[in-house]
Amino acid sequence: MSHDSYMKSKNKRKIVFAKRGAKDLEEATAWLASQNIEEIECMVPDLAGVARGKIMPSKKFLNTPYMNLPLAVFYQTITGDYPDLEGVVGTVQSDTDIFLKPDFRTLAAVPWAHDPTAQVIHDAFHPDGRPVEESPRQVLRRVLGFYEAKGWKPVIAPELEFYLVEKNTDPDYPLKPPIGRSGRPETGRQGYSISAVNEFDALFEDMYEYSESQGLEIDTLIHESGVAQMEINLLHGDPLELADQVLMFKRTIKETSLEHDIYATFMAKPMANEPGSAMHIHQSIVDAETGQNLFSNPETGEPTPAFFHFIAGQQKYMPAITSLLAPYVNSYRRLAKGSGAPVNTQWGYDNRTAGLRVPPSNPANRRLENRIPSSDANPYLAIAAVLASGYLGMIEKLTPADPVDKDASTLPQGDLPYSLVQAIIKLERAQPIIDIMGPQFVTAYSRVKLHEYETFMQTISPWEREFLLLNV
């Protein structure tokens, strides 16, 4: 960050916005008027967690708060292509309109916009009123419906790791750490260093301001173990609400970083010799009426059978949901032996080398942390997948393996997939997961991911040119 950029940020006028969310169109209209909002970003998260949609004048939005997009928006790959849809929805049907309905609870400012602008996340429906199964928001709603039918309510808290990197306009060149306020880049790992975070003090001040103006509840910010790698923790709460916050936070830190002439990336393994970035998901289940944590006996405080069933479900179904937690070819560079990531389905008490960790807590806060998801995962799908696995464990009354108290990274990887293709095959063969997450969604997701893999295979890497060109 240049000195001029730093001083410009420090001298920037503080912006105050109303709190996020409205209960209905009437309240939203008053909110927009109070903020003098001129434009609305109407968005829906696609399979990659990318915000798709339209930008429209606020008057037009208030007159017709519904908008149309083609169904194919949920079949678009990360490269902007589309897989073969034969046998899934067909070319004609994929191009037909779906209807997007705003969830006014997500209404918030867009604080980095030049003109007064708001954003609102939408849900997708077919013309006959049926929810669109391929929509990630609907997938999470579907999974939460199974819990609701039992009188249970999941509570989650995500932890997001990301890197700040120097602008990289030529993808043939590797990424570099950015210049901080000292005028120098980081040269060594500064895990948990406050001074290393303060190198980007102006950026993070803007990030906090922008987050607060959108109602994003950031708990902590720390420097992680990688060079210019950071982690933010969001406060625990409702799964759908937190997935929305992750979507909004990713947009926020990317936009804030661009204002400071650097990039923020949630790529799982952006630099070869640095640790990957994760999205750890803490989970507990409470009684919907009483709020009692179902993982703890209310009288003794000891863990309940449901707690161990929940763990066992995630152990059993982790291989089947891995493609939802690690959705790209690059994700498996993080999930590799010796990478520092937990490449296993083991569980343990406060053991960060295990894929499943039980953090220290009192009985009211007993929870399970799933450490497998990458930061590149779609938050709606990753949260839905781990909750689906835990639910199946509770329903099937599964028994977990014994907890491990040693370095789990030395243990065999077992059934955990080594690649995206292997992970997709396991997903397609896991009927209980298909049933709970929706067959139409699983088919769509598999087609998109396999097409992305095929696109990746068309690129010849430097490694191949270095070691195969003249040696084979």
TrEMBL record:
One of its GO terms (biological process) is glutamine biosynthetic process. InterPro entries: Gln_synt_N_sf, Gln_synth/guanido_kin_cat_dom, Gln_synth_cat_dom, Gln_synth_gly_rich_site. It comes from Asticcacaulis taihuensis. Residues 136-472 form the GS catalytic domain. Its cofactor is Mg(2+). Keywords: ATP-binding, Ligase, Magnesium, Nucleotide-binding. GO terms for molecular function: ATP binding; glutamine synthetase activity. It holds the Pfam family Gln-synt_C. This is Glutamine synthetase. It comes from the Bacteria. Belongs to the glutamine synthetase family.
